[in-house]
């Protein structure tokens, strides 16, 4: 079972005190690699015996890891962080149920989910600097550079960045999944009944589809944003040939010093893909010119 699925299941067994303890560890991890027992007690406000009992349960549920030496301390893992995010999304009225995974990758997992209104949505869990407990222990000596907080912090920053981009792009009329909510390392957005361009086997009008993609890249560029990771893997296409651009955490500003170069690479990836796979005759230069000025079809 994947991390978020384990989290959704664990959540049904957690009481508010358990969540309070996880929140205390989350907060403590800003300062400590292993959050000292006394610190968890202080932040959570629970007495020692209650806390010890509940930490034991969280350990058995595989949500936290206990170090005994040189001091008694705790860290949480991604599943625990997933629990906190899912809990907040449920309490906040965004989510009712988590569904199956729809895209599992190196730096993010995307799941189908349902809102209380029964609307189907996609929830993306950013997973940067994914480390195992064993790695964390091995890297303990590097504590001084605060690398220990990196996965928690980086993945939250990525989610915040993606949500910001989606809101800006959605507002500018770029075809992106409608952003719905953001909590910790998660982004909740419109569920696209579509497939990755890379998985499409046949297209009736490849040139038209390419132009639709470029038109969206142009709108984004005019609104001040370059995707920077554009490829056939980050374009979704539905059965009617509608397109969406997804996966925005690493976006950069059109005013960036290397904007031209970055834009050309984005556009080049797509134009070249269409040349190879669909024998379109638009060159990368033409595609870039189209994005910068607009061209007649
Ligand atoms: N809103 C959505 N609706 C439906 N499916 C989606 C949605 N967003 C993402 N997906 C699916 O999940 C996959 C991964 O999403 P995305 O590209 O945003 O993450 P990623 O960062 O590329 O993950 P990784 O690079 O680690 O594989 C997509 O290729 C797509 O198949
Ligand atoms: Mg992607």
Provide tags for this entry.
elongated, five-stranded antiparallel β-sheet, 2 domains, Phosphorylase Kinase, domain 1, binds adenosine-5'-triphosphate, three-stranded antiparallel β-sheet, 297 residues, alpha+beta, binds magnesium ion, 10 helices, Transferase(Phosphotransferase), domain 1
Secondary structure blueprint with pairings:
Blueprint: H1 3-11, H2 16-28, E1 35-36, H3 37-44, H4 48-60, E2 64-67, E3 73-76, H5 78-91, E4 97-104, E5 108-114, E6 120-126, H6 133-138, H7 150-171, E7 179-183, E8 186-190, E9 195-196, H8 206-222, E10 225-226, E11 235-237, E12 243-245, E13 252-253, H9 259-278, H10 284-293
Antiparallel strand pairs: 1-3, 2-3, 4-5, 5-6, 6-8, 7-8, 9-11, 10-13, 11-12
Helix pairs in contact: 1-5, 2-3, 2-5, 8-9, 8-10, 9-10
The structure holds adenosine-5'-triphosphate (ATP) and magnesium ion (MG).
Task: Give a verbal description of the structure.
- Helices cover 44% and strands 18% of the residues.
- α9 crosses α10 (284-293).
- The chain is elongated and about 70 Å long.
- It has helices spanning 3-11, 16-28, 37-44, 48-60, 78-91, 133-138, 150-171, 206-222, 259-278, 284-293, and strands at 35-36, 64-67, 73-76, 97-104, 108-114, 120-126, 179-183, 186-190, 195-196, 225-226, 235-237, 243-245, 252-253.
- The strands form 4 sheets. The protein has a 5-stranded antiparallel β-sheet, with helices on both faces.
- Residues 139-145 have low confidence and may be disordered.
- The protein has 2 domains: 3-189, Phosphorylase Kinase, domain 1; 195-293, Orthogonal Bundle (Transferase(Phosphotransferase), domain 1), CATH 1.10.510.
- It has 297 residues and is of the alpha+beta class.
- The relative contact order is 0.09.
- The structure holds adenosine-5'-triphosphate and magnesium ion (MG).
């Amino acid at each position: 079972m994947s991390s978020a699925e384990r989290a959704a299941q664990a959540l049904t067994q957690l009481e508010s005190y358990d969540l309070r303890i996880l929140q205390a560890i989350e907060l403590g991890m800003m300062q400590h690699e292993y959050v000292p027992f006394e610190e968890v007690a202080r932040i959570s406000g629970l007495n020692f015996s209650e806390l010890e009992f509940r930490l034991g349960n969280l350990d058995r549920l595989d949500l936290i890891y206990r170090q005994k030496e040189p001091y008694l301390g705790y860290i949480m893992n991604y599943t625990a962080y997933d629990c906190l995010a899912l809990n907040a999304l449920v309490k906040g009225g965004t989510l009712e149920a988590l569904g199956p995974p729809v895209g599992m990758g190196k730096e993010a997992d995307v799941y189908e989910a349902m809102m209380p209104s029964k609307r189907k949505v996609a929830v993306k869990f950013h997973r940067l600097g994914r480390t195992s407990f064993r790695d964390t222990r091995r890297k303990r000596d590097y504590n001084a550079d605060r690398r220990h907080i990196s996965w928690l912090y980086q993945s939250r920053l990525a989610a915040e960045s993606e949500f910001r981009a989606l809101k800006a792009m959605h507002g500018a009329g770029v075809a992106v999944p409608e952003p719905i909510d953001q909590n910790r390392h998660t982004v909740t957005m419109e569920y696209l009944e579509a497939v990755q361009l890379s998985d499409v086997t046949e297209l009736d009008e490849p040139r038209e589809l390419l132009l639709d993609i470029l038109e969206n890249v142009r709108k984004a560029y005019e609104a001040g944003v370059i995707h920077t990771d554009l490829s056939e893997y980050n374009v979704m296409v539905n059965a009617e040939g509608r397109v969406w651009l997804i996966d925005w955490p690493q976006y950069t500003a059109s005013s960036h010093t290397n904007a031209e170069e970055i834009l050309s690479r984005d556009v080049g990836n797509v134009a070249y893909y269409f040349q190879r796979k669909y024998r379109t005759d638009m060159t990368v230069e033409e595609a870039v010119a189209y994005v910068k000025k607009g061209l007649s079809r």
